[in-house]
Amino acid sequence: MSTKFFFILKGDIIENGDSSLQVVSLRNPATKSESKYLLQKDAGDAARGTSVYEVNCFNEPHRSWFINETVCSNGKIFLPTPIDPLFLLLPYLEQHCTERAVPLEQVLIDDEFPRVAELAEALKPSRISLLADEKRAGNIVAYRYNESKALSWLVSKCHRLSVVVSTQDGSAARSKNFIKEEKENEVDGDETAALQTAFGLVSDYLSLEMGKKLANSLGFPEDDNVSKKRKSIADLESVQVKRIKKEEIHETTPIKLQAPEKKVSAKAKALAKAASGSKSISSFFKK
Fold it and tell me: What is this structure's pTM?
């Protein structure tokens, strides 16, 4: 019996009959661990190339789906959302192209995730140039990572995203029904909050070190550096393991509470006093 999965797809993803959809495992650019992505390849339009979607999973226990006349016991919901493939390319450029220019097919090499090579179909030279300097020698095109270009691209993306965030309802966004007599410093505070929200969204696709550099490029003060709040998965797991171990070996000394003093009634006191001078009944049967 084949395993079924429930996907919620946008119309334009499935309406094109010439496109093929494939779920692949690639390296997460922030955590470096495995994540699932959906590749949409358009066989009818080679110029369109490949579109990349991040597969998000929503899961609750004790959930199933009724599909036609069958029951799908796997109640997970998979939501593919578009992702800029430059985020996936960035760690490989940092790894292979910092010291010299390297052709793209030699950049997208990962023994653990071999299908990363398919990202080449989703990356146009004009977009790769946002992160790297292009070098040509005959028919060979190579790229050398340029950190200044990468940070400029990320800063621009944060500012564009903050404009969208500021139009939405929420604690980090400006109210649509704001009063025109607002003080300028309050407006500036809303814009800063929107930019910080945008930075938080973008930094979810960056390494911790790159997130810090982006925060500095955006002009966030050191104390307000949002990247400080982001810890790697390994750090979080380490903290969790230490906490569990402490609980298991009981390093903390338990507090002993003094038992509450029992109140004795006058009748009980009188009975105790009367019985203090009497002998036990068993003493009459002793030899």
Answer: 0.70
